[in-house]
Amino acid sequence: MATEPRTTLAELSANSIPDQRMSKRPVVCVFCGASTGTSPAHLEAARSLAQALHDNGLNLVYGGGTVGLMGELARTLVSLSGPTSVHGIIPAALMKFEHQPSMKDPNHVIDEKMYGKTTIVKDMHTRKHMMAMEVIEGGEGGGFVALSGGYGTLEELMEVITWNQLGIHGRGVVVFNVDGYYDGLIQWVKTAVSAGFIAPGNAGILVEALTADEVVVQLKEYKNAEGRFQLNWNEK
Q1: How far is CA 147 from CA 1, 35, 43, 182, 211, in A?
Q2: Per-residue pLDDT tens for 96-118?
Q3: Residues in contact with 141: Cβ distance below 8 Å, sequence separation at least 6, in sequence order
Q4: At a CB cut-off of 8 Å and minimum separation 6, what does 232 contact?
Q5: Predicted pLDDT of residue 230
Q6: Model pTM?
Q7: Sheet hosting strand 27-31, strand order edge to edge
Q8: CB–CB of 17/23 below 8 Å?
């Protein structure tokens, strides 16, 4: 891995020039499970989201898995928009868990024509940093989306919500709520507001979408919450 200093998310966000971002293709980072779930609705949602990304000229960056919802999302979008539309980023240690059995050999080359570009990194922090950077560097209308998933999906979602609240990035954060999967999370936000742990002005950082097309609309029309912290992350 390269050891040269990396641009931080805060530096990139602060130094981004709107005119330059407008000329770039938007990038959507999707967090989702390496499992398919017990309901076929989750796989169908992954396919419909890929179709919506294709229809709206949006690129995908994701966790690099070839199984579960991750694999279905990547394969479907590549079949529609081509390999350059997808970038998977995966830590080496997760290859044996998030790839199909035939791909668990560390010397195996992942088929770019099926899954797009894949970058193997050393750890989770590098993976998340790279995914977030692609979204921030991309054009307007990009952002972060959570499809159904488990602990890892929820952790990644909560991190980008927190980064938005802290002013580290200003991109949209959307949950694609399939068959009520995220009803509990949405209710928890409301409970946290009423209990005084989330400021009312920050309740809207996370927005809900019930269809793939609505996901895209929510990203395009996303407005940053009034209660976001006005912090300077470039101070030494």
Answers
A1: 30, 11, 10, 9, 11
A2: 766 665 554 555 567 889 999 99
A3: 26, 56, 58, 216, 219, 220
A4: none
A5: 81
A6: 0.88
A7: 117-121, 86-91, 59-62, 27-31, 143-146, 172-176, 206-209
A8: no
Distance CA 212, CA 198 (A): 28
The one-letter amino acid at 145: V
Q: What is the chain's length? A: 236
CA neighbor of 51 nearest in space, from 76, 68, 85: 76
Helices vs strands, H then E, count in the chain: 10, 7
Distance between CA atoms of 146 and 25, rounded to whole angstroms? 20
Residue 132 three-state SS: helix
- 200/190 Cα distance (integer angstroms): 9
Between CA 85 and CA 227 the distance in angstroms is: 34
CA distance 212 to 191: 27
Alpha helices in the chain (DSSP H): 9-15, 18-22, 40-55, 68-81, 95-98, 112-115, 124-137, 151-165, 183-194, 212-220
Rounded Cα–Cα distance for residues 208 and 218 (Å): 8
